[in-house]
Amino acid sequence: MNRRLLFVHAHPDDEASKGAATAARYVDDGAEVSLITCTGGEAGDVLNPGAGVAAPEQMGDVRAQELAAAVAAIGFTRTYGLGYVDSGYHEDPADVPPGTFSRTPLDEPSRKVAAIIRNERPHVVVTYDEDGGYPHADHIMNHLVTMRGLEFAEDPDADLGDESGADLPPWRVPKVYAAQIFPAERVRALYDAMVDAGMTGEFLERLSRRLTDEPERGPDAKVWCPDHFERRDAALKAHVTQIDPNGHWFEVPRELERELYPYEAYRLLRSDVLIQPPEDDLFASLDLEAVEAAQPAASTWASAVGE
């Protein structure tokens, strides 16, 4: 039985910066790894000096092409785009334009996510923390939409409208995680090593702003994936308008990162099984046959798809 993992991301490039090496590792291990991208990234600025200039009306098409290249680098099994308009980053939430993703009534995109969940039947879903990881309105909305979509997906009485997959049996996802790019232990390990090596740069400055002496809960899962950092980097570089290949993403030598923190980290948001953190596998403790058997109308669905 194939393991099934679903990532829900806000913008093109988030799939490359949050869990890309994990996704590539599970693809190579034979899992089905799917991706939802909620917006088209139309509000993104050109952040790579070498990328040239993209007119605002072209940005959506450019970001779609970049996403396709990143998806190919990582190897996602299937991808879905919800088609919402990028809200853009605004320090004042009141400045977010109407008609954008974060201004959309919550249940609308949540129904779309629920229908995809019923179609994909993932054993694990990865989204963002409640704060979005940083205060981008679309990232916060991404968390809310994912969690609401999970509720709809398992509710046999939920009205999912005419979404493709809405008529499939309910599906409860047994484990849900939030991706963590900068857990405290990673920040400290990389910062100390870079300082000891006499390194400078924007990435070191970013790490310094995240340093804390306050006790912090460690990751609930740490997926070992150093052999897939190159795939992550290729996916990042596929987002030509967003990622400067000479910029801060690549200031840490990969051999140093592999030595000090060869993981991608996750915080558990919900689990139907007892876990013993830190897990080394997002599917840890899951009995997949039991999960399938416990689902509403599981036998009917399995018969329908020939499993």
Architecture overview:
With 307 residues, the protein is an alpha/beta fold. It has one domain: 3-Layer(aba) Sandwich (Rossmann fold). Helices cover 37% and strands 14% of the residues. The chain has 11 helices and 7 strands. The longest helix has 18 residues. The termini are close together. The C terminus is likely disordered.
Overall outline: globular
Structural class by secondary-structure content: alpha/beta
Give the C-level CATH assignment. Answer: Alpha Beta
CATH architecture: 3-Layer(aba) Sandwich
Q: On the 0-100 scale, what is the average pLDDT?
A: 92
| CATH topology value | Rossmann fold
Summarize the helix and strand pattern as letters: EHHEHEHEHEHHEHHEHH
Detail the poorly predicted runs. Answer: 298-307
How many strand units?
7
Could you tell me the strand content as a percent range? 5-15%
Q: N- to C-terminal separation?
A: 9 Å
Chain-wise SSE layout:
Blueprint: E1 4-9, H1 14-17, H2 20-28, E2 32-39, H3 59-74, E3 78-84, H4 107-120, E4 124-127, H5 137-154, E5 175-180, H6 184-196, H7 202-210, E6 221-224, H8 229-238, H9 254-260, E7 263-271, H10 288-294, H11 298-305
Parallel strand pairs: 1-2, 1-4, 2-3, 4-5
Antiparallel strand pairs: 5-7, 6-7
Helix pairs in contact: 3-8, 4-5, 6-7
At a glance:
The protein is α/β, with parallel strands linked by helices. Helix content is 37%, strand content 14%. The protein is globular and about 60 Å long.
State the main characteristics.
single chain; 307 residues; disordered C terminus; 37% helix; Rossmann fold; seven-stranded mixed β-sheet; alpha/beta
